Structure formats: structure tokens, C-alpha cells
Amino acid sequence: MTKVEYNLDQVDYKILRLMQDNGRINNADIARELGMAPSAILERVKKLEQKDVILKYSAKINPAAVDQKLLSFIFIKSNDIIGEQRVGLALAEIPEVQEVHDIAGDDGYLIKVRTTDSTGLVDLMRNTLGKVEGIISTRTTIVLQTVKEDQQVVIPE
Amino acid sequence: MTKVEYNLDQVDYKILRLMQDNGRINNADIARELGMAPSAILERVKKLEQKDVILKYSAKINPAAVDQKLLSFIFIKSNDIIGEQRVGLALAEIPEVQEVHDIAGDDGYLIKVRTTDSTGLVDLMRNTLGKVEGIISTRTTIVLQTVKEDQQVVIPE
DNA sequence: CATTCTTTCAGAATAATATTCATAATTAAT
DNA sequence: ATTAATTATGAATATTATTCTGAAAGAATG
């Protein structure tokens, strides 16, 4: 348990807002936006990366373009002991599983899964989930339509 | 309803894999990786952006670093008619709401919300959700711990 | 306060990448 | 086959990234 101090200031927040919105914005543009030198921006961005404030950069790909049209959420009850997460880690290794959350109340997980279609989902549940030791039951929720989906976080001040 | 043809080939898939993993990878590096000229990569990437295969680039920010430590999922029952989504669109406008999915079965939505803490969640539910017309009921699920969270999509071939 | 230590920034110099464009190669269409 | 359309290359130029030195600003110390 390492308590981390982030100590971000107003300038950091501005940089984060810009980069959250456009992960490929360049230092020169950020510098222009904030009225600073590019070299100063570079230093700050590197620091933000090192402090794990910025965790990753990624291109968001249209799931339909790669034939992953079905989105589902599955509640999974497991026999994991509190704290450990044998099942959770096994679930996390499945490529179609985008998220694994340990949830309160149900000694279980909520996972988010993308497959080609319902057949792909059934296959995944049978062939992959079925082989994970410790799963007691599942309850699947199919998404008909996604109205919003991003990971933009609210940045203070 | 516009049926779109994406027509992606092996090279596109390789580019997508690289960019999904590192949204800031540069054309020169992709070119080296694929044994092509940087200018050719640039053209393809631009095309992928225009065809909405690549939807967005973004920096993933550590929620804890900006004091958004609590993640919750909320099922929301609404009186929206099938197809319309008055409530869904209203929910999508809330900055703390990262995702809004129209789900099968319950004439309702599943939303993903980040707040500072449980107090922030209660405030949001009272002050913001409470003002959305058409919400019949809610059921909240608190996330204790996240094991995995990304939007990496499985890319074929 | 003065001094030291630390952090952050600016600005210049250089390295690397992005972008453009004309041409060649490849692929698809008829 | 021939033409048309797409995609790639390679060179030239524009921009940006990166490094580095010194200055400025802040924090900590006595």
C-alpha cells in the first residue's frame, strides 16, 4: 500500500484536459494554448506519465469496424475469498473482456464483454468462461444501443 | 441508417493494433514495424480516421489522481418509448457519467459513473439524476476494486 | 531576511518526425 | 489487355520533439 501524492496544479489540469480530449495533441499546440514554451510542456507531460497520472494513450477503435458489434455486461458470482481475486484475474486475461470490476454486495464481478454477435457471446461463455474455476453463476445483460461511451474523467478546478 | 463498408486489410489491422496499444506511436515507428514508407502510413491512418474506424485518440487519466475514486454502475428504469431515448440523452450530458447503455429487457439504461466518493455519488443522484424527467427507479452497484479496465477491442486475423 | 536548494521555465540548437507532392507500382474494372 | 483508380515510394520541406544551459521563481533552512 503505497500512498501517492500527485500534487497537480492548474497548468497540469489544463494539460490533462487537452490530452484527455485529444491524445495526439502535440507539445507545441499545448504550449501555444497555455502560453508556455514547448520544452516546459514536455517536462510536465513526462512527469505526469511518471507519476502515473497519465496511464496510457490509446486510439479508440470503432468496434463495428472490426466486427465486434455486441456489447454485454455479465454479473459473475464466484467463490473468491474477500480480497483475493483468483476469478477476477482469470477473467481479466480474456481478450474480449474489457473490464472486470469487483463489486460490493454479491461476492461477484461485473464484466464488460465485446463479441461479434450473440453466437460469439455464447461461444465465449461456454468455451472460455466455462473453463474458469470458481464461477458459481452468471447473469448476462445485453446492450441494445450505446448512447455514450468514453472514459473522460471530470478534472477539478 | 447508412450501411458502411469498412474494407480493412491486414495492414490496417496491424496499424490498429499498434495504435490501440499506443495511441501516440508515430508514423515513422509504424512504418519501421511494417516495412513501409511513413507517408504511406500517414495516408492509411488518415483514411482510418475519416472512415470512423479510429474514433478518437485520448490519454487515459488515472481517476485517483483527479480525485474521482469511486466508480459505480447504476441501472435506471425509465418511461422512454422503445427507440427514443429522452432519458438516455439527458444522462449522457452529465460529465460524471462515462457510459450510457440502453439495455435489453428492463426498458432501462445501465450507466457508469465516477465520483469523488460516496458523498459525491449521493449528491449526483439527488441533484442531477433527480432532475432528469422520466426516471422511474434506480439500482446502484458500487465497485470495490477494478481488476481490468480498457477498451482494447479484439482485432481479427 | 539572506542563503541555499529545488523546481520550473524559456530559448536556442539539433534530431526526428510530419506532411506534401510527383512519380511509380499495384490493383480493380471493363 | 487497356484504362482507371488506388496505394506506395522517395525526396523535399515544414513542424515538432528533444536536449541543454542558464535564468527565474519558490520552498526550506538557519
UniProtKB/TrEMBL annotation, chains A, B:
Protein name as it appears in the record: Lrp/AsnC family leucine-responsive transcriptional regulator
Domain of life where this protein originates: Bacteria
A Pfam family reported for this protein in Swiss-Prot or TrEMBL: HTH_24
Keyword Transcription regulation attributed: yes
Organism name: Sphingobacterium detergens
Residue ranges annotated for the HTH asnC-type domain, each copy included: 8-69
Molecular functions (GO terms): sequence-specific DNA binding
Entry-linked CDD domains: HTH_ARSR
Matches recorded under PROSITE patterns: HTH_ASNC_2
Record's keyword terms, sorted: DNA-binding, Transcription, Transcription regulation
Coiled-coil annotated residue ranges, if any: none
GO BP term, pick one: regulation of DNA-templated transcription
GO cellular component: cytosol
